[in-house]
Design a protein that fits this description.
The chain contains 3 helices and no strands. By secondary structure, the chain is mainly alpha-helical. α1 runs antiparallel to α2 and α2 crosses α3. It starts with a helix and ends in a 10-residue tail after the last helix.
Length: 96
């Protein structure tokens, strides 16, 4: 079942990369970019992640693909956490 989830996730990820490139190259098409974001989110959701405790075995190639699939979502989450830390009450940064 893990390999089926990994395969489905990989299909969503490759589709997201294609939609991202197709939405940016000739001219910016916002609908395709929105679909690319959705494909990346679905790929992240379907992926059997070791970090989230959904996969126990260690496969080198699955671990490498996990880094690639989780990277776009982790970058967005990192940016949101950085913004939240800057605008949080306290000594961390800017206070509104």
């Amino acid at each position: 079942m893990e390999l089926l989830r990994a395969f489905i996730s990989l299909i969503f990820f490759v589709s997201g990369v294609y939609l991202l490139i197709d939405g940016l190259i000739p001219e910016i098409e916002w609908f395709l970019l929105l679909m690319a974001v959705g494909a990346f989110v679905f790929a992240y959701g379907f992926w059997p992640s070791r970090r989230r405790g959904q996969r126990e075995e260690a496969h080198n190639w699955l671990d490498l693909i996990e880094i690639v699939i989780e990277l776009p979502i982790q970058m967005v989450l990192w940016a949101f956490r950085l913004c939240a830390r800057l605008f949080k009450d306290g000594d961390a940064g800017v206070d509104l």
